Amino acid sequence: MNLITATGFGVRRSEETVAAWRSLMPADSVVVACDGDEVVGTALFLDLQLTVPGGAVLPMAGVSLVAVAPTHRRRGALSGMFSELHRRMAAYPIAGLEASEAEIYGRFGYGPATVWERLEVHRRGARFHPDVPDPGGVRVVRPAEHRAQLEDIDERWRRQTPGGLRTPARLWDEILADREESREGGTPYYCLLHPDGFAFYRLYGSDEKNKAEVTKLAAATAEAEIALWRVLVGLDLKEIVGIHTHPGHVLRYLLTDPRLVRTTSVEDGLWLRMLDIPAVLQARTYSADLDVVLEISDDFLGRGGRFALQVRDGHAQCAPTTADADVHAEVSVLGSMYLGAHRASSFASAQRLRANDSAVVAALDAAFVSDVPAELGYGF
Ligand SMILES: CC(C)(COP(=O)(O)OP(=O)(O)OC[C@H]1O[C@@H](n2cnc3c(N)ncnc32)[C@H](O)[C@@H]1OP(=O)(O)O)[C@@H](O)C(=O)NCCC(=O)NCCS
Q1: What integer pLDDT is reported at residue 184 of this predicted model?
Q2: How many structural domains are present in the chain?
Q3: What is the extent of the structural domain holding 234?
Q4: How far is CA 2 from CA 67, 68, 315, in A?
Q5: Is 378 a catalytic residue?
């Protein structure tokens, strides 16, 4: 199996790393495709905990290590493995994954549900706006010596962030081990710690392209976020500080010259696939009242149908109905809308969400928007 995944992704993980991830795999969560005695494909899922808007946490089957041998591609191995893998997800209302290529997973009902924007701050000449406070309180620390505090901040951050994931102790072991193979040519981690936030970063490059890349920033308060950015933007000798984050990040609003913050790429992050549509729609809170009948198609698993969704004071009731539908869409569209990162009106413009009345689309936009931007907790 390690050989198939190494061939698929071009990386080999250490035994310790494999063991840490294996500790998140429920029994029977691995499926392989075989040609005779030979394993030619793999797919598995991890037992993850996903935060949804409003702070509820759903058990999520986190699909990972999907690979088919280059000798056996485009013969249905992935489709066969996915049918079996999803049959084994009976305990999960929702599944998620990260996609190596965006063409692959829509057919299985997955939709992109968070957006990864990479920002670069060209920090020479960058100044903070005079109205922005300077809260201080940040220390440079050795992360292993502050593990309990880091875990506590991460827990607070993920509980309030749609798309956040619980980081189990075995994964903290891995983060703190800081293995050479995960550094991608960068230095070991540096760690900045504030009572309500932390940032890990690595340094890259030669004299002419000196770069600090933030690999994780978790801030449980707005003050902690500002305090950490004050230090990161102040990293003398570095030309650029980079981070992958959600759209609309505060960084541009902190500086007198927002042009010094450039977007270098925009990609999808977490993809979501609803397995129990009413349970998932009832789990999150909403920003406006709503009365709508959704007709959801699901060719892959047949879990779609017609559902009445009613929201009052932020909370939803959702149940199958025989009433006429107001809205028609594929289950992947609902996955994309779920954390608020993509709007119903965007899909309506593309004719991928069809409503009899444009007021229904506006009502969906108003209800599904999330005041906390969605962000993938960590890669899996
Ligand atoms: C992606 C991968 C797993 C697909 O496996 P596969 O066995 O070739 O896929 P299947 O033959 O079951 O294809 C199922 C359908 O998806 C389509 N498909 C599969 N991979 C695709 C891709 N990369 N781009 C576009 N379409 C793709 C097939 O054309 C097929 O469509 P059809 O049902 O309309 O005929 C395989 O190419 C692979 O291992 N790639 C390298 C590793 C990787 O990227 N893994 C995914 C990690 S997220």
Answers
A1: 87
A2: 3
A3: 116-268
A4: 10, 12, 44
A5: no
